[in-house]
Amino acid sequence: MTPAVLMLAGPVTREEVAGLCDDVRARLEATGTRVVVCDVGGLGPPGLGVVDLLARLQLAARRAGGRIRLRDPDPALHALLDLVGLRFEVEGEVEQREPALGVEEAVEPGDPAV
Questions:
Q1: Tens of pLDDT along 28-85?
Q2: 3-state class (DSSP) for residue 104
Q3: CA-to-CA distance for 63 and 65, rounded, in angstroms?
Q4: pLDDT band at 93 (very low <50, low <70, confident <90, very high)
């Protein structure tokens, strides 16, 4: 199934956050998937308001049994999320513990077979 996409355009006010959290929960229920893709390309310059918004959206999704995935994050937003200790799945990035497609490990002659 294809995950639902939630377009986020900024700046987002505090009053809009609750409605966006409701949107995430509704999209998880409507699609039956466990992921909502949040397109964050239109949020503008990253700041603590954006971090708060994404944390609340992730919390709403987790409470509904899912998660959010970010699409088109600004590199500065990615760095800011790392700085505050929040980890989000990002579209196009390889998940941890999975090799990138088309990448093979080098084998040295004489290495034992696994």
A1: 999 888 999 999 999 988 999 999 999 999 999 999 999 999 999 999 999 999 999 9
A2: coil
A3: 5
A4: low
DSSP letter assigned to residue 68: E
What lies within 8 Å, CB to CB, of 78 at 6+ separation is: 90
Rounded to whole angstroms, the Cα distance separating 38 from 71 reads 6
**For the segment 70-80, what is each residue's pLDDT rounded down to a tens digit?**
999 999 999 99
Measured in whole angstroms, how far is the alpha carbon of residue 58 from the centre of its chain?
Answer: 8
For the chain, first and last CA: distance in Å?
35
How far apart CA 96 and CA 29 sit, in angstroms, is 27
Alpha carbon 14 to its chain's center: 20
Burial string for 74-85 (b: 16+ CB within 10 Å, else e) reads: eeebbebbeeee
Quick one: CA torsion of 36, 40, 42, 45, rounded to 10 degrees? 160
Q: What is the pLDDT of residue 97?
A: 53
